[in-house]
Specification:
Elements (H helix, E strand, L loop, with lengths): L2 H16 L7 H4 L3 H4 L1 E4 L2 E4 L7 H13 L2 H9 L14 H5 L7 E2 L2 E2 L1 H19 L13 E5 L6 H10 L7 E5 L4 H8 L7 E6 L6 H18 L7 E5 L2 H7 L6 E3 L16 H7 L1 H20 L6 H15 L4 E7 L6 H13 L17 E3 L11 H6 L6 E8 L5 H20 L3 H8 L4 H10 L8 E8 L2 H22 L10 H14 L9 H10 L2
Parallel strand pairs: 5-6, 5-7, 7-8, 8-9, 10-11, 10-12, 12-13
Antiparallel strand pairs: 1-2, 2-13, 3-4
Helix pairs in contact: 1-4, 1-14, 4-14, 7-12, 8-12, 12-13, 13-20, 14-20, 15-20, 18-19
Bound molecules: 6-O-phosphono-beta-D-fructofuranose.
Length: 536
């Protein structure tokens, strides 16, 4: 048995012992548990003491990380080697947020100067739009931006805007992703075309949803302003020629590179609409926060490395204890889109069943992620988290100092975050419940007590942001990006491709031709019946 197999076997043994004890019991056995399982990185405080592992189990997990070659893989990642083998690409999102003067290479070629050139162009553009120097075709300054893109070209910018937008923005930013025309119709409603810029974001500039919405938005501009309104079109793409062919003025096409994965692209010109609507200085702080987390991840030893620890906690739950789901609950309304963002980051990156060299992965990979803002989630899916038949680990996030509104309400929010983590872990015993029900008829107590019992022992990670600002948000996203990378290394999969989205895309093209009146194709009877039913 090689070291790696031995480490997986050790994990199984450790996890089976963990299955026989309670998390809450570990605090007596390990008096320094809270200190040893707490960590601060790039301004984020991360507490993993409510996870089911013991301190000895953490060592087992660290052995697994070492045996899996996490350190060497990290060096290859930062060194710009091809880590996305199926597409022959490095994954260098860290280069996008590195400070000026950095020296990243993609496949041996220097890239940092090019990155700075695009960043400078973004800053210049953001500045002239915000200053009202760059105006619409009728001379009015831009007051709104419609950001069109989907997946990685949408979720990052949408999340960042929701997290950081001012209460009364100088420039309002709206998003249209879905090919469902209802979304764009809602987004355009109430906007003045003369004051609206349309930023189309697509790495490939071939995505059906995005091109459909971009054409519709251009038609909306032209309908009131004529073709002069094409000057309101801006594009972000790794295929700038296609954006220009679409009709976007050449000086309004911002490039990025094939070594930027779509779901890792918010740091590139994909973040342009945020940079314009928030102001470039805010965007620069967002990049700096991520760069601080990169530096931590690159240099901290594995045992004190936040993304590594977060990944190991996840793998302990996923592979050791067989938990296929994870809930993400930010106790911050502004972070409510975090679960949606993580769904793509984690599930598109690590939802893989074969290794990077095509062999079946001998164990489960990414868990399914879901979630919503706390406290809202408490009144929706928390019943199942507390008393359902599955144990679902949580990531709970909290912001110590609220940015707006009543500080007393912020304190109530924090109280709920802490209390939920406690309730999930500690639970409430049946004996306690029976004591409370004492005096009622025995049959009623027998029926009620189990229903009002909380089994507890439900794990959570707790992440605290001092404030919700650009730096912390950047650090938070980078933390999870690197966590995903470490998990991918442990599982031996390529976290940077996404072949699983292709089949549906190509079948949709065939079905569309049929819905538009083309000849019937070969389908299973169920699909053929649906096509007949839905043909307009
Ligand atoms: O969903 C598949 C996907 O390729 C994502 O990885 C990507 O973020 C999204 O589509 C959008 O692609 P593009 O930016 O090329 O329009």
């Amino acid at each position: 048995m090689n070291d790696r197999d031995a480490a997986w076997t050790a994990l199984s043994k450790a996890a089976s012992a963990a299955g026989d004890r309670r998390i809450a019991g570990l605090f007596d056995a390990e008096p320094d548990r809270v200190a040893r399982l707490g960590l601060t990185a790039a301004g984020l405080e991360i507490d993993l003491s409510k996870q089911p592992w013991s301190l000895a189990d953490l060592d087992v997990m660290l052995d697994l990380a070492r045996a899996s070659g996490v350190e060497a893989a990290r060096t290859r990642l930062f060194g710009g080697e091809v880590v996305n083998a199926s597409e022959g690409r490095p994954a260098l999102h860290m280069a996008l947020r590195a400070p000026d003067g950095s020296d990243f290479h993609a496949n041996g070629q220097p890239i940092s100067r090019e990155v700075e050139t695009v960043r400078n162009a973004m800053r210049a553009f953001a500045d002239v739009v915000r200053a009202g120097v760059r105006r619409g075709c009728t001379g009015k300054p831009f007051r709104s931006i419609v950001h069109i893109g989907i997946g990685g070209s949408d979720l990052g910018p949408r999340f960042v805007w929701e997290a950081l937008k001012p209460l009364a923005p100088q420039i309002e930013l709206r998003f249209a992703a879905n090919v469902d025309p209802a979304e764009l119709a809602q987004v355009l409603t109430g906007l003045d075309p003369a004051e609206t810029m349309v930023v189309t974001v697509s790495k490939t500039f071939t995505t059906l949803e995005t091109l459909t919405n971009a054409e519709a938005a251009r038609a909306w501009l032209r309908a009131s302003l004529g073709t002069a309104s094409d000057s309101h079109l801006v594009a972000v793409s790794a295929a700038p020629d296609k954006a220009q062919a679409f009709g976007v003025p050449a000086d309004q096409v911002f490039g990025f590179w094939d070594w930027v994965g779509g779901r890792y692209s918010i740091w590139s010109s994909v973040g342009l609409s945020c940079a314009v609507a928030l102001g470039y200085d805010v965007f620069a702080r967002f990049l700096a926060g991520a760069a601080a987390m990169d530096e931590h991840f690159r240099t901290a030893p594995l045992e004190a490395n936040a993304p590594v620890r977060l990944a190991l906690a996840h793998v302990f739950n996923r592979n050791g204890l067989g938990r296929p789901l994870r809930a993400v609950v930010p106790y911050a309304q502004r972070l409510r889109l975090f679960a949606a963002f993580l769904q793509q980051l984690e599930m598109e990156s690590n939802g893989k069943r074969v290794t990077a060299d095509g062999q079946p992965v001998p164990r489960p990979t990414a868990a399914s992620v879901f979630g919503d803002a706390g406290t809202n989630g408490q009144h929706a899916f928390f019943q199942l988290l507390h008393q359902g038949t599955d144990i679902i680990p949580l990531d709970i996030l909290a912001v110590r100092t609220g940015s707006e509104g009543d500080p007393a309400a912020q304190t109530k929010l924090l109280a709920n975050a802490i209390a939920q983590a406690e309730a999930l872990m500690v639970g409430r015993s049946e004996a306690d419940v029976r004591a409370e029900l004492a005096g009622r008829p025995a049959a009623e107590v027998d029926a009620l007590a189990p229903q009002r019992t909380f089994p507890g022992d439900r794990p959570s990670s707790f992440i605290v942001l001092e404030r919700l600002d650009g730096e912390r948000l950047g650090a938070l996203i980078a933390l999870y990006e690197h966590k995903v990378f470490v998990e991918g290394v442990l599982w031996g999969i390529n976290s940077y491709d996404q072949w699983g989205v292709e089949l549906g895309k190509s079948l949709a093209t065939r079905v569309l031709a049929e819905l538009e009146g083309g000849p019937a194709g070969a389908h299973d009877p169920s699909t053929a019946a649906l096509i007949r039913r839905l043909t307009p």
